[in-house]
């Protein structure tokens, strides 16, 4: 959940649906074996590089932050929605959760071994995304890992497309275009995973997972 001028409206919208959101998605990783495997690989890469702290940016009610903790990472969560953070703290009192904007993180340069941005950039207007990715790169140590998830489009002529989202306007991205933006921020793609939608999915969009590392 982020944005620049769009942040207050998006934050307020998620505050309003926080309880329902937490109830609906608390076990969303259960039926996602490929995503769980990629999260496990992300955790292994972070540990291999020294096991620095990991920020789950746009953490919502904290269930994925807790999953990262279960994978052996020193993970904490950041979200713009105070209501989401309150739910995360209640559900996972042993972990750290902070209210904050992904566009201006209260984290020192190079302090993190990893950043997870799981569907948390989807509300970011296209003109703002490069600045957001630069902020992710700023807080990562050289060699640090970024795992970013979003919805994908195959239309090369329109590398970003907006779509109606239950909470706020959202965007999907061309994988190659997004990879180029990561590269421009000093983040080198190391792997990608594209998953086709299930026939029962509400949105018939492919899902994109991009793994990248901060340049040395």
From TrEMBL:
SUPFAM superfamilies: S-adenosyl-L-methionine-dependent methyltransferases (SSF53335)
Keywords: Methyltransferase, Transferase
One function term, GO molecular function aspect: methyltransferase activity
Keyword set includes Heme: no
Pfam family, one: Methyltransf_25
Transmembrane segments: none
A biological-process GO annotation: antibiotic biosynthetic process
InterPro entries: Methyltransf_25, SAM-dependent_MTases_sf
Annotated ranges, domain Methyltransferase: 54-144
Name by which UniProt lists this protein: Methyltransferase domain-containing protein
């Amino acid at each position: 959940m982020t944005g620049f001028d769009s942040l207050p409206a998006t934050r307020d919208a998620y505050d309003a649906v926080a309880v329902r959101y937490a109830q609906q998605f608390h076990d969303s990783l259960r039926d996602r074996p490929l995503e769980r495997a990629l999260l496990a690989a992300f955790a292994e890469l972070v540990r291999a590089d020294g096991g620095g702290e990991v920020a789950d940016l746009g953490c919502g009610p904290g269930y994925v932050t807790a999953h990262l903790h279960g994978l052996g990472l020193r993970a904490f969560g950041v979200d713009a929605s105070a209501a989401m953070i309150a739910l995360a703290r209640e559900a996972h009192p042993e972990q750290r959760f902070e209210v904050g904007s992904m566009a201006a993180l209260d984290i020192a340069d190079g302090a993190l071994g990893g950043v997870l941005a799981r569907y948390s950039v989807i509300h970011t207007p296209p003109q703002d995304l490069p600045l957001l990715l630069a902020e992710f790169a700023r807080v990562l140590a050289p060699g640090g890992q970024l795992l970013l998830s979003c919805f994908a489009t195959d239309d090369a002529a329109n590398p970003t497309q907006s779509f109606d989202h239950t909470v706020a306007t959202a965007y999907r991205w061309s994988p190659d275009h997004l990879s180029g933006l990561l590269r421009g921020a000093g983040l080198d793609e190391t792997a990608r995973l594209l998953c086709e939608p299930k026939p029962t999915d509400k949105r018939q969009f492919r899902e994109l997972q991009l793994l990248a590392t901060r340049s040395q």
